[in-house]
């Protein structure tokens, strides 16, 4: 980061409930922020992106929440891509995470991704989510906000 200004950091959030089609990667959008100390995220354009302002090593974290699946064992995947232009096959794959969905109706299933990645200024990150229940499931942002963040660690 720039001397005297601290570390660039952002936590973008979404509190929307959104239907998620089975077996289809969906680009997550984040309309609000808990904080953004380095102008890394916009709430008005390209809201699914975290755009890097200071080159360096970043800690990236993401979590999404889905409603319970009634029967069987099904999974939810998160995929982090660099410079993907909204495409789940574009840019560079940075990290991938898979979680199993709960069948307990009293719980919301969470899927999380955490990684470190070296990025250049103007690189941007996008988060994609996919579930394989065989039917549409609901991303439950109204129960617990979906989160997508980055923290600059070092040059």
In summary, what is this structure?
With 155 residues, the chain is an all-beta fold. It contains no helices and 12 strands. The radius of gyration is 16 Å and the shape is elongated.
Question: Can you describe this structure?
Answer:
There is one protein chain. The N and C termini lie close together (7 Å). The model has no long low-confidence stretch (mean pLDDT 91). This protein has strands at 9-14, 17-20, 26-27, 32-36, 49-51, 56-66, 75-82, 92-100, 109-119, 124-131, 137-140, 146-154. By secondary structure, it is mainly beta. The protein has no helices and twelve strands. The strands form three sheets. A five-stranded antiparallel β-sheet has the order 4-1-12-6-9, with no helix packed on it. Strands 3, 5, 7, 8 and 10 form a five-stranded antiparallel β-sheet that branches.
Question: How helical, in percent, are the residues?
Answer: under 10%
Number of helices: 0
Radius of gyration: 16 Å
**What is the topology, as strand order, of the major beta sheet?**
4-1-12-6-9
Give the key terms:
5-stranded antiparallel sheet; mainly beta; 52% strand; 12 strands; 155 residues
């Amino acid at each position: 980061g720039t001397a005297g200004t601290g570390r660039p950091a952002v936590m973008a959030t979404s509190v929307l409930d959104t239907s998620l089609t089975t077996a289809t990667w969906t680009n997550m959008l984040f309309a609000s922020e808990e904080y953004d100390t380095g102008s890394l995220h916009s709430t008005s354009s390209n809201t699914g992106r975290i755009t890097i302002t200071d080159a360096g090593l970043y800690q990236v974290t993401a979590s999404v929440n889905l409603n319970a699946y009634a029967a069987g064992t099904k999974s939810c995947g998160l995929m982090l891509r660099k410079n993907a232009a909204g495409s789940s096959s574009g840019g560079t794959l940075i990290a991938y995470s898979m979680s199993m969905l709960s069948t307990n109706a009293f719980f919301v299933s969470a899927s999380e991704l955490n990684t470190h990645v070296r990025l250049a200024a103007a690189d941007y990150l996008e988060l994609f989510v996919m579930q394989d229940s065989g039917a549409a499931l609901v991303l439950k942002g109204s129960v617990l906000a979906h989160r997508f963040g980055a923290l600059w660690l070092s040059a």
